[in-house]
Amino acid sequence: MAEDLLIVKNLKKYYPITGGVFGKEIGVVKAVDDVSFTVKRGETLGLVGESGCGKSTTGRSLLRLIEPTAGEVTFDGVNITALTADEMRRMRRHMQIVFQDPFASLNPRHNIEKILEEPLVVHGIGTPAERKKRVREMLEVVGLSSYHAQRYPHQFSGGQRQRIGIARALMLNPKLIVADEPVSALDVSIQSQVLNLMQDLQRELGLTYLFIAHDLSVVRHISDRVGVMYLGRLVELADSETLYAHPLHPYTRALLSAVPSPDPDAARERIILQGDVPSPANPPGGCTFHTRCPHVTEECRSVRPAFQDVGGGHFIACHLYKA
Ligand code: SF4
Fold it and tell me: Where's the ABC transporter domain (predicted)?
């Protein structure tokens, strides 16, 4: 069994809400509220949930692209939450991010060579000639050609731009890639090409992925295990096969019932959730899902269910299941 490359413990990211003439703090938005999980070396952990559930904030907080409010993140044996800003900058070469919108994340005034070279320049790696060689090699690795180095971001299609985004993340030979909705902005036909590329690269380079998406079918394709988030908290986490075949949490069951099945006999009955996702500025007490759950009880309204392993590494936060 591979060891854990990433251990996230009780991660929280709260944003203050200010108001009044003096801009006093009048509340907090709990974007990420006590999230814990691990990712093994060489594994892909999918993180899914509706927009605003805190999955992207989780990815950025654990990389310290935004500073977490509380919690501990251990990466490759190092507690990175205790590192100084300088130490963190050096550590970040091993932990890279691929963004959802490759166009917005690529500087339109720089050609691809300059964009891909930049991480090497920042970290003082290689001579100019070595850096240019690495750029050309990396373009080939992601299925582009070395002549693309002189072109500008607007000269590429969405799928090609995401390949460039992946190439940029790989320039420093990272161990972990946080892929934040990397295919959501792409056409369905292009999505599978980019997903296949990511899987090939994982095999060849031994990469570990935290793959964030709102679409359960996308995550299934690529993940070894999947975690489901709701209102800033993880509500279920299991290996992909178990999660898709035997989802336990009422929220996961509702999400999965909306995913079209290729096998009409195996099609699930659609579960329509009542109401909207409550505001993270004012989340319901107890189980945060209780305002929409078809199985709600009195206990659910007042007692927060613990996120616990109910057997075989299947974690769930719901009073219907006890460890
Ligand atoms: Fe539903 Fe209660 Fe389980 Fe929450 S704890 S998901 S409200 S049954």
Answer: 6-256
Q: Which of 293, 303, 308, 316 to mutate to test the pocket of ligand 1 (most atoms within 8 A of CB)?
A: 293
Residues in the ligand 1 pocket, defined by CB under 6 Å:
249-250, 287, 289-290, 293, 295-297, 300, 305, 318-320
pLDDT of the chain along its 323 residues, tens only? 679 999 999 999 999 988 877 888 888 999 999 999 999 999 999 999 988 899 999 999 999 999 999 999 999 999 999 999 999 999 999 999 999 877 788 899 999 999 999 999 999 999 999 999 999 999 999 999 999 999 999 999 999 999 999 999 999 999 999 999 988 888 888 889 999 999 999 999 999 999 999 988 889 889 999 999 999 999 999 999 999 999 999 999 999 987 766 666 655 678 878 777 888 888 899 999 999 999 999 999 999 999 999 999 999 999 999 87
Q: How far, in Å, CA of 159 to CA of 143, rounded?
A: 11
SS3 89: helix
End-to-end Cα separation, the chain, in angstroms: 23
Residues sharing a CB contact under 8 Å with residue 63, sequence separation 6 or more, in sequence order: 92, 95, 97, 178
Strand bridging mode 315-316 / 308-309: antiparallel
By C-alpha distance, which of 197, 321, 180 is closest to 252?
321
What is the value of pTM for the model shown? 0.92
Q: How far is it, in rounded angstroms, from Cα 219 to Cα 221?
A: 5
Return the CATH architecture of domain 4-81+226-316: 3-Layer(aba) Sandwich (3.40)
Which has the closest alpha carbon to 3: 61, 42, 44, 54? 42
Residue nearest to atom 6 of ligand 1 (CA): 318
Q: Is 176 exposed, middle or buried (0-12, 13-18, 19+ CB in 10 A)?
A: buried
Tokens standing for 258? 């909306």
